[in-house]
Amino acid sequence: MSRRLLGIALAAGLAATLTGCGSGGSASDNTLEIWIRQAPDSDSAKTAQKLADAFTKASGVKTKVVALFDDFETKLNQQAAQKQLPDIVINDTAQLGAMHSQGWLQQVDKTKLAGGDKLSERAWTAATGSDGKFYAAPFSAQAFALIVRKDWREKVGMEAPKTWDELAALAKAFTDKDPDGNGQADTAGFVIPAGTKRGYASWYASSLMYANGGDFIKAAGGGKFTATVNDPKTIEAVQYLQDQFCKAKSVNPGAVSNDTTVTHEVFEKGQGGIYLVGPYVLARFVNSIGTDKIEVIPVPKGPSGGPGTLGEGENVYMMAGSQMQDAQKKFAEFAISPDGQRIGMNKDANGAIVRLPVNTQVDLAAERQDPRWKVFQESYANAVYAPPVPNWAPIRQDSADSINALWADCAKNVQTTMGELNTKLTQELQSQKAS
């Protein structure tokens, strides 16, 4: 039996085992256990605790917040194997397929979820499984934009980029024209989390692909999908990025091994001046770099498509096997309520766990005074979520491996590599019975 088929068989067995079993061990003392993918003791973890405390005050339900960042999914697997899943998981929208395929998630009837009718329909798409049913409550949304060193841009005498050519020219100027004025060749244009861990290379490239009208896979109707990474628009976007690594050499050194944790620090240390990223680091950079030194610019429309950018966020997942199903539902309803959303937004301070509110009754401008948030909000109108395949994780990982290889090895041909990747993704879709 292949490893993939073995994994599917084990997941099916695990799903059956979870049915009816207790979760987390927290139900014995009537405490709702909530896991969130954030670093322990971080500002975001503290915001999650504020949300839980406010829920407890409103409902009387005791809570325990567990903040984990490294190997989050691995630790969830370990808990599942021990029949000790937490009651609630707040995690990436792109993880829905993987968790649903393992039988971890309860189905959600949005018509019976108080406040569910107040959430944006775009946000609900991120809570939809491959079968068209809902398996989470939307909690936070985000789109991507360019955070740029405004002081550097003014130093090199250039306008905010509106095309890909202008963006490449700005990156080249940041690399070659000593924008920090220290007399050393120690700056780059782009800072990129181009490593393969958790699929970061693919995650980063996706916004440029969507801005050019490209994609990884396309819906073919009836819950089926077709791989499309060999489409000319997708190839054009990946070629553009390879050119920044290999021809212009305007990307920060070491990018092909970096994840976002390292890349945040690279940007903060002034080693690069253009970061395509979500709004969750805006407050951090305002504090660490200076509010007058950074600006937010929309991702320019590609030469063959756009506008578009990656859309993602976090869902509240109600985990299977919990003995506290009523409390699970109450927490989800509180998290999506205006009060819960505002607590998660944390105004303009660092530590937001709600980036863009999904509740349409929450006015972002009334909660946050920094006008740069508006760029991210406007970009969300054209955001593209990961499609509801049974399991998006291997598709993102296969894509990251191939795209990273193109950036790490300049001799590799983009069209050939993307053609090979298209074959891999087709095979993956077949293995998921989604082709």
Automatic annotation (TrEMBL):
Assigned keywords, A-Z: Signal, Transport
PROSITE patterns, alphabetized: PROKAR_LIPOPROTEIN
A Pfam family assignment: SBP_bac_1
Gene3D superfamilies in the cross-refs: Periplasmic binding protein-like II
Source species, domain of life: Bacteria
Classification via SUPFAM superfamilies: Periplasmic binding protein-like II
Name this protein carries in UniProt: ABC transporter substrate-binding protein
Family per record: Belongs to the bacterial solute-binding protein 1 family.
PANTHER family reported in the protein's UniProt record: MALTOSE-BINDING PERIPLASMIC PROTEIN (PTHR30061), MALTOSE_MALTODEXTRIN-BINDING PERIPLASMIC PROTEIN (PTHR30061:SF50)
Stored CDD domains: PBP2_TMBP_like
